[in-house]
Amino acid sequence: MKIEGKVWKFGNDIDTDLIIPARYLNNSDPEHLAKHCMEDADPEFAQKVSAGDIVVGGKNFGCGSSREHAPIAIKAAGVSCVIAPSFARIFYRNAFNTGLAILECENADQLKSGDHLSVDFDTGTLLQIESGKTFSTHPIPPFMQDLVNSGGLLPYIRKRIS
Questions:
Q1: Are 77 and 37 in contact (CB under 8 A)?
Q2: What is the mean pLDDT of residues 127-139?
Q3: Of 97, 117, 135, 138, whose CA is between 20 and 30 Å from 128?
């Protein structure tokens, strides 16, 4: 599977409170969460992000609490995937369980906001479209791609048992 999108760049240690502030957790509706996604890191993000865009973070993306609301908010905002050098382990699992694709890329710091990327999930290759520069990531294993393509763990299980 391949996608293309515009990059939204964030730094190291973006925690789940920056992704979706706790003050909005009284409502778990994905559309509600999307309206407040990344609000404390970039107040205009939710209004400006477009379907298919890509979030690029620094080291330890998704640290903090174990709430599933964080990847749900990112996905509901229209983000097609998140790329970072490393992810908090609970965020990593929650992302796939909710159907959000994430890729680990040691060279993510070379990407900038506004770049246009082509992402090949099968090979783990990123192409910075403007420069033609490529980056390698750890490809998503087929099972994990199935989770993302199904929309997350619950839809995946429903599909498997029906």
A1: yes
A2: 94
A3: 97
